[in-house]
């Protein structure tokens, strides 16, 4: 069973930076997509950024130019560098891994890490 372990959340002032990390333990899928989602109080969970094994990336419009997603395939780890943070970025951030084989699609979630941006 894949386990996603997140770290790096915290409290930061507006304009500051944080870096989130997510390690995928016991990951048997050499070809996968890793992503960060976030969920603010009273709102639906939304995609922030995703990256494929060959480093193709996609970002939500709200974070383009401020956030950068990257991955280290040898370490099965994905990172989210968040710069120029705004109070609207306050949310619980969740790591996600998606993969498939010839029979099924698999989707795994981390436990979430809180990011709070003060004004």
Characterization of the model:
The mean pLDDT is 96. The chain is 0% helix and 56% strand. The protein is built from no helices and eleven strands. A hairpin with a 6-residue loop joins strand 4 and strand 5. It is mainly β and 119 residues long. The relative contact order is 0.32. Strands 2, 4, 5, 6, 9, 10 and 11 form a seven-stranded mixed sheet that branches. Strands 1-3-8-7 form a four-stranded antiparallel sheet, with no helix packed on it. It starts with a strand and ends with a strand.
Strand fraction equals over 45%
Number of distinct helices: 0
Low-confidence stretches: none
Category by helix and strand content: mainly beta
Secondary-structure element series: EEEEEEEEEEE
Helix content: under 10%
How does the major sheet shape up? 7 strands, mixed
Tell the overall outline: elongated
Q: Kindly, what is the distance between the CA atoms of the first and last residues, rounded to a whole number of angstroms?
A: 40 Å
Overall mean pLDDT stands at: 96
Number of strands: 11
Gyration radius from CA atoms, angstroms: 14 Å
Give a quick precis of the structure.
The protein has 119 residues and is mainly beta.
Main traits of this protein?
single chain; 119 residues; mainly beta; seven-stranded mixed β-sheet; four-stranded antiparallel β-sheet; elongated
């Amino acid at each position: 069973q894949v386990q996603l372990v997140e770290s790096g959340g915290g409290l930061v002032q507006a304009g500051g930076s944080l870096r989130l990390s997510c390690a995928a333990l016991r990951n048997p899928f050499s070809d996968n997509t890793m992503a960060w989602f976030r969920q603010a109080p009273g709102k639906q969970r939304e995609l922030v950024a995703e990256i494929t094994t060959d480093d193709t990336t996609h970002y939500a419009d709200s974070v383009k130019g401020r956030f950068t997603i990257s991955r280290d395939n040898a370490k099965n780890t994905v990172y989210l560098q968040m710069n120029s943070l705004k109070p609207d970025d306050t949310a619980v951030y969740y790591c996600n891994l998606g993969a498939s084989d010839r029979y099924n699609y698999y989707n795994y979630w981390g436990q979430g890490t809180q990011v709070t941006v003060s004004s």
